[in-house]
Amino acid sequence: MDDRLKDIHLLLIYLSGWYEDSTRVPGKKVFRAWKGYLFDILNELERDNLIQQFRKSLILTDEGLKKAKGLKERYL
Q1: How much is the pLDDT for 1?
Q2: What's phi and psi for 11, nearest 5 deg?
Q3: Which of 5, 14, 27, 76 is placed for a possible disulfide with 68 were both Cys, Cβ 3.0 to 4.6 Å?
Q4: Can you list the alpha helix ranges (DSSP code H) found in 1-61?
Q5: Which residues form the domain of 22?
């Protein structure tokens, strides 16, 4: 799959997401977004350790958040 397509999706996830308290680690914040994107791309982003998927939402990993912030600086 084209890396540019994955980058665009990661940037869109970042731009539409929010911080909230983790339900698994007390005191930790996670960056969450809804799963309204192509499943093939979401699966690849998860394989690249940039996101973790849940039933209806996802979170950006630390690595994914760092990359998404870099993409925002680069393109916006």
Answers
A1: 73
A2: -65, -45
A3: 14
A4: 3-16, 39-47
A5: 3-75
